Amino acid sequence: MPATVHTSIRRLKLDLTNFRTVRQPDEIRAVQAMISISPDYFWALTESLIEDDYLPTDNIIGLSMAGKGAEIVVKEGNRRVAALKLIHGILPTDDLNIPENIERKIKGISLQWKKDNEEVPCAIYEASDAALVDRIVTLAHGKGEKAGRDQWKAVARARHNRDVNKASEPGLDLLEKYLEHGKNLTRSQAERWAGTFPLTVLDEAIKKISPRFGVKNAPDLAKQYPNVKHRKALEDILRDIGLENIRFETIRNKTIDFALKYGVPLLPETATDKGTKGQKTSSSTTSGGAGAGAEGDPKAQQGSGKPTKKPAAASITDPRSVTRALRGFVPRGNKREKVVALRDEAKQLNLKNNPMAFCFVLRSMFEISAMAYCDDHKKTGGPSTKKADGKDKKLSGLLADIAQHLIKNSSDKDATTKMLHGATSELSKPQGMLSVTSMNQLVHNPSFSVSEGDICRLFANVFPLLEAMNE
Known about the structure:
The protein is mostly helical. It folds into three domains: 3-152, Conserved hypothetical protein from pyrococcus furiosus pfu- 392566-001, ParB domain, CATH 3.90.1530.10; 170-301, no CATH class; 319-469, no CATH class. The chain is 51% helix and 6% strand. The chain is built from 23 helices and five strands. It has helices at residues 27-37, 39-52, 78-88, 100-107, 111-116, 130-140, 154-163, 170-181, 187-193, 199-209, 218-224, 231-242, 248-252, 268-271, 282-287, 298-301, 319-327, 337-348, 355-376, 395-408, 413-427, 436-444, 452-469; strands at residues 3-8, 12-13, 60-64, 72-76, 119-126. It has a five-stranded mixed sheet with strand order 1-5-3-4-2. Strand 3 (60-64) and strand 4 form a beta hairpin. Helix 1 (27-37) crosses helix 9 and helix 20 (395-408) runs antiparallel to helix 21. The chain is globular, with a radius of gyration of 26 Å. Mean pLDDT is 80; it is low at 142-148 and 270-314.
């Protein structure tokens, strides 16, 4: 049986192998990962603790790593303990984007509150009881919403199944390697997708197309990556699954092979299907094998008498692409509080009904992000907001300087240059959508306006720079 005692939060150590995310190097990175995965939940919990104190309705569950007085690793209650450590100032908050209202409340904490909430009830198990603790935690997160827990998502369930039950989880294996080696994702995406990712969609996708990357099956794809054929195409598919541009309906479409759009060729026997006995495609399509989606391939339809269809192209004028990008945008660093507030406003705007308002909010996000970026790199010779004569730089010039600084300090300069090309081209236009001229026209010219299609094209070009300035 565990010893249930009130324990100082200073003695509690966050679990760096929390199933919700990949292994973290230290506690502050573990907190960053928790926030990245569910920011609203984390800050709501923090605010509740400040306003209502720690309510001992559930014990923290911990494993004692040695004898009396030793560190206790938190196995259940990591978010509560993390929030308490931030409130008490035990962990640094410099690299955390704390909402303004939470920051004000933390600064206003009384000494009495700190005294009353310095210890929490903790059920402490010996290290030899690790298997029992794991069963308890698993049951706790299997309860319904009334249990008051933030339930495990697909990634956490798969990680628990793989690490504890020793089951095969090729989708998770591939995802974790992609987060480490992928060349087309940002740091904030990697942190978020380590804990929340459409893993079931990925599982179905790789089961269907793995042989087309020169491997046997999905587990082999996870094992061989990143040393596989068509690596870029695979990483683009992984990214678009994370952005929710690829869903179950995309993968299951029997008319269009989704992977062809990314440059993943069909297997030779499928691409040259002549209807011979040894080259049946119906069974492989049914089972989700390499022939899946051949009905949408022009080569596969030659001689059938049916009209050919090209793979459907994704439109950059679709407002959903803007919404998805903003949903995954997590600004980091100091002086980003207003960027977060503006992002939240932008998410609420309907591009069809509020295109002009969206333009003003987007330009404001760029101005504040640019100033914060310059402040971040001021001590290391980064770009300045001022000209040599002391006057403020125009936003377009400042953003161009920032883009060059990002490229200069990138480990892959060619990839970064390509990523930022659309932004630098758009922002260099004297009368571009985000220019001062256009902003003035939107305010003063009764006949000047913009449409949702204009906004979507603009956003697709400039968003990579906005995200890069806030990582």
